[in-house]
Amino acid sequence: MIAIIDYGMGNIGSICNAFELLHQEIIIAPSPEALRKADAIVLPGVGAFAEGMNNLRTRGFLPILEEEIIIKKKPYLGICLGMQFLAERSHEHGLHQGLGWLPGEVQRIRPVDSTFKIPHMGWNEVSITPGSLLFQGLGTKETFYFVHSYAFVSSPHGASPGIATCWHGTEICAAVQKGNIFGVQFHPEKSQNNGLRVLRAFCEYAREHPGQPRK
Amino acid sequence: MLLKRIVASLIVKDGIVVQSIGFGNYLPVGNPAIAVEFLNEWGADEIIVLDIGESRTSRSPDMSLISALSKMSRVPLTVGGGIDSIKVMRGLIKGGADKIALNRVAIENPRIITEAAHIFGNQCVVVSIDVRRTKNRRYEVFTDSGTVASGKDPALLAKECASLGAGEILIRSIDKDGSKSGFDIDLVRSVAEAVNIPVIAAGGCGNPQHVFDVFQQGKADAVAIGNMLHFSEHSVNTIKAFLKSQVNVRLDTHATYEHCSFDMLGRVNKRPDAELEKLRFEYHPKEVI
Lengths: 215, 289
Prior knowledge:
The complex is a heterodimer of chains A (215) and B (289). Chain A is built from 5 helices and 13 strands. Chain A has 215 residues and is of the alpha/beta class. In chain A, strands 2-1-3-4-13-12-11-8-9 form a 9-stranded mixed β-sheet. A 4-stranded mixed β-sheet of chain A has the order 6-5-7-10, covered by helices on one side. Helix content of chain B is 32%, strand content 22%. An 8-stranded parallel beta barrel of chain B has the order 1-4-5-6-7-10-11-12, surrounded by 6 helices. Chain B is globular, with a radius of gyration of 19 Å. The A-B interface holds A 10-11, 13-14, 17-18, 21-22, 46-48, 114, 116-125, 143, 145, 147-149, 166-168, 187, 189-197, 200 and B 1-3, 5, 40, 45, 70-71, 74-76, 93-98, 120-124, 167-168, 196-198, 221-222, 250, 252, 287, 289.
C-alpha cells in the first residue's frame, strides 16, 4: 500500500489518479499515523519550500518520516517540492532547512541568459544515467513535464545523488536516488506515459524492497 | 532543452465542446470527455478548457465537468471561464485543474493576480488576453467574449500582469479566431517581446505551417489550437511530425510519419503506389504500463 502525504500543498488528485491507473492500493495520509501502515511513501507538492516544510512540521510528519524512511528504509518518492525537501536547505524566499537526507541545497535556477524563462515550465528532455532503477523500461533521453523556479543542487563534496539532468540555460537536476530515497523534479502525474512508467518503476522497486516489516 | 508546446484548446458551452468562429458563432463538436481522452492519446502537451456557457453556476466553470476531465488528463489542465475569485480558483484546483486562466478579472481587479500567485504559485496563473484590431489598425483588448472594449493595449497589459505575478500569457486574436488563416504574428511577437514569462499564441491556426511561423517569427513558447484539432485524427502528432525537423517538440509515438511528406495544409500526402505495395504492418503489442 502506498501512502500519499496530503499536507495542504497542492492538489493530490492527479497523483492519486495516476497510481490508481497503475492498479496500486493507495491511502491518503493527512496525518503521520497512516505512514506506519504503508509499504511506500510518496510526498508530492507544489508551492513554496518554507510553507511546505512548515506544514510537514506542524502536522507532526518529520519524526515519523525519519523513522519510516531513514530507519525502516521504506521506499520514498518525492515529487517536485517533495524532492526539494530532501536537501539540507533551500534559498527560496530566505534560508530554510530541509530534511537534510541528501547533501546539497535548493537554489533559484540561474540560466545563462534571459531567453530561458523562469519558471522552467513545459516539457524538457531529460538525460538519464543508464541503469537507474527509477527509469526502468525507459531510454536514456526522455521528456517529462516540469514547472518550477528552484532546483536541487548537489553538494560539491562527495558523490552526487543525481540520476538524471536536463538543460534550461543551466544544468538542472531532474531526479535523485540514494538507496530507498527517490526524488523527481518533474511531475510524473502530468508526464503522460513516460510519467506513468516512472511511477510503475517506483512501484516495482517498492514491491521488491519493502523495508523493515511493519509492526 | 525545453520544447515548444502544442496545447489543445477546448471551448465548452453548456457541457458540449464547440467550434468557435470569431467569438460569434459556435458550432457543436461533441463530448468534452471524449475530446480530452483523444487529445491525450494524440500527444497534446497540455489542455486548456474554457467554459463559456451561460448555464454555469455563478461565476465559475462547471466544477463537476472539470473534475471529470482532470481524471482523464495525463497532461497539465488549464481551466478558464468567468473566474473572478480565489474561492472559485481553490475549488477548481482542488477539483483537478493545474492552472487557472483569468480574463476579465485581470483588468477589473488585477490585484487578484498577485493574490492568486501568492496562494497557488505564479505557475498556476495564466492571464488570457483577447484582442481585436481597431479601426486605426491598432490592437485593443476586449473582454466578455469579445464584446466589451477595454481601451487597453495587449502588450502593455501583458507586461503589467507579468509584473503582478502571472506565470503565463495566453494571447488570442479574436479576428483570426476560427479563420484557419494563421495566427496574428505581429500581435504575438509584440507580447512575447514585452514579457519574460511564457506566451501561448491562440486564434487562427489552420495548418502546421502556421504553427511553425508563430514559433519562429511570433516568438511564441506554445500554441493553443482549437478548431483545427477536432476534425482530423492524430492531428497533434501530424503537426509535430511536420515541425520536428525544424522545431523542438515532443513527439512520443510509434507513428512518426518519418517516410511521409505533407501537403500545403499539413495533411499527409499519399505515398506512391510502388511504396505502398511493399508495406507490411508493424506489430506493436499494446503497452501495459
